[in-house]
Amino acid sequence: MKRAWPLIAALTTFAVTIGTLFEICLRRDAGHFVYVLDDSYIEMAIAKSLALRAVWGVTSHGFTSASSTFLWPVLLALVDRVWKPSELTPLVLSCLAAALAITATYIIARRLRLPRMGIFALLLAIIFLSPLPALVFTGMEHCLQIATALPFVYLAAEDLTQAEGLGTRGMSCLWLLTPVLTLIRYEGLFLVFPVCVLQMLRGRRWKSVGMGLIALAPAVLYGAYSLLKGWFWLPNPIYLKGNIPRLIRARGTVPGIYGAFTWSAKTADLLSVGLALVVLFGLLAYHYRTLWRTSTTMIFIVVFAGALHLKFAGLGWFFRYEAYLVALALLALSAGLKDYLSQCQRKDDISLLERSAATLLMAYCMLVPTTILCLRGYQAITHIPQASQNVFDQQYQMGLFLRRFYPDASVAVNDIGAVAYLDNPHLLDLWGLASLSVAKIESKAPITPTEIERLATSKKVVVAIVYKRLFKNGVIGRGGLPKQWTQVGKWTLVNNYMSADSTVSFFATRPSGVAPLVAHLRQFSNSLPRAVVQSGKYIKKIHRDSNQSGLTQTEQPKHI
């Protein structure tokens, strides 16, 4: 127990943090726990459909390639199958995966012979800078991704630095983790590729080829199945959002394989940590005169994977896309600094000038990335309750509204998660994640009002709940929404942080649907949280006219 105090203290800190944030979210969401992303409910909807109806789709009406993870919905479905579908299942599994990531970090740090205080500092950094609490409250696969990526990179580095490679037990773990990385998320390929390159440089051609093939196998098998179902080779979220080559995606606005990287303000944390790793790599390579050390090999893999991620994948969206890289970078930095400081203790080998220059570089390696990552961690922790409330006030209420008044109807939406999970509608997803017809259009150019109307008519859509503004500025479509649609009402968030737009609009797609939609919105209005401002045709403020004995009604915004 005394030797393991860093692990015990870190797990306790993590548990207290999650418990506190959970209580705050319950208070802000009227006693109901809601995840910080609507995307969380997409995977929950797939798991629910898989467990209850054996259909891989957001609804039971057919296959939809709307998720970029394979393993996580299967795990959720297994739990739902054994017990019963519960909205808390992803939260519990995410907590377990986060605890596994913390434990894996502790075991690796012990093997790297880091001091106990250093181990404790590393564990706290993994918790709050990755940041694990934010990932837990997404209820998605990212904690499991970190728990898998950490041992994979460490074992791969150990295998590469040993002349004979790992033993049977270690290699078994490495071969097992390789396809699991891809099963969890496609970004796992970014980690496997540099390992394959290094294996080739080591002269281990068959091992390099073997690891590459088993890493690609899940993606190839799923792609083949998706093609048989008439969908794309890649899942729609990757096909529509990823920065992938033109050879794979037809849309001309996407940079090709030789195009630009994803540079923006969102990359500041990754770039600062990446530069620190490059500096540390150079110092280690200079002093040890070899690449084949565990620390330097880990740094090489992480930097290589980070470059691939910036090239082909996204960043941000509640800190989750790049979280695995931040966790790996923290581990690689710790291993590299320990190695370098051990070398610096040999005073005869290093001149005073070299030591002074190295000290300045190390100061940068520690201070600048740490400052930026601390800001990242602070923002993640403080925004969790607000993000949860935003989803509860908007997307979750949309799902409750449709479940109550339009069960199993055909509806058009652009946020499908809570809507699909809480009900089983026939969806026209105007963002294209769960609608192949929309995705085919969006892969070439933003969808137009004429195309939206054609698809809505063919799907017999009766009501649309969308972000009107996004269809004007080209985020989803261009030219707005069909003129045949009648806007009946709007819900607006007062303090929006998480939703793509503060205002969601309700449209009747045909004149005959206006009166029912007005009546339904009016009935549902008193159920909405107080933080939602309502406006539109269905809002009637009753007041007494001084010239009449009766009552008159005028249309006014309503703050419930």
Quick recap:
This protein is α+β, with helices and mostly antiparallel strands and 560 residues long. The protein contains 20 helices and nine strands. The longest helix has 42 residues, at 352-393.
Textual characterization of the structure:
With about 550 residues, this protein is α+β, with helices and mostly antiparallel strands. It has two domains: about 5-390, no CATH class; about 395-560, no CATH class. It contains 20 helices and nine strands. The chain has helices at about 5-30, 40-55, 70-80, 90-110, 115-130, 130-135, 140-160, 170-185, 190-200, 205-230, 235-240, 270-290, 295-310, 325-345, 350-395, 395-405, 415-420, 435-440, 450-460, 515-525, and strands at about 410-415, 425-430, 465, 485-495, 505-510, 530-535, 540-545, 550-555, 560. The chain has a seven-stranded mixed β-sheet, covered by helices on one side. Helix 4 (about 90-110) runs parallel beside helix 7 and helix 12 packs antiparallel against helix 15 (about 350-395). About 45% of the residues are buried. Mean pLDDT is about 85; it is low at about 245-265 and about 540-560.
